[in-house]
């Protein structure tokens, strides 16, 4: 791993490199971005870049982790409340609203990177395994609380239900991006919502 900066200036430089690399990758794709491109965009030299990152692969993995942090930070307030059907609905609504603001062209930042990089090597693949696990963990916890309170049936596997929900989100974001139609995401989440409702404990 590269050097972890201990000063505010060092942290700012490393963050600028990461932001520049992430922006270039989002616009051009991973394969089209070189270290020279990143250096020019960030305004740094090769020695500075290698001070913070071992090589291009290390930089790309760091972009993955940084992207995950950004996505989860934006959703954190809502992810803290996914322990009720109403809370999950608010989370779904926010995901759809974000896709609508991007005119359905943005897709999922994590999913987009995963499609390009998950087969690159085991370290990079594991970075995505960890990324989706971090994203899914609050939902698994929330569904577990719903089960403990009796809101979900006791026979429901909350991990499988969370997996299904995340698959719907990723599939919906991908179709919305490809077809430029936010309704594709709404449709996918309608399927996830139906599965969640089916898992509820029947009213007496």
UniProtKB/TrEMBL annotation:
Domain of life: Bacteria
DNA-binding residues (ranges): 34-53
SUPFAM superfamilies, per database record: Homeodomain-like, Tetracyclin repressor-like, C-terminal domain
Alphabetized UniProt keyword annotations: DNA-binding, Transcription, Transcription regulation
Domain HTH tetR-type per the UniProt entry, residue ranges: 11-71
Protein name per Swiss-Prot or TrEMBL: TetR/AcrR family transcriptional regulator
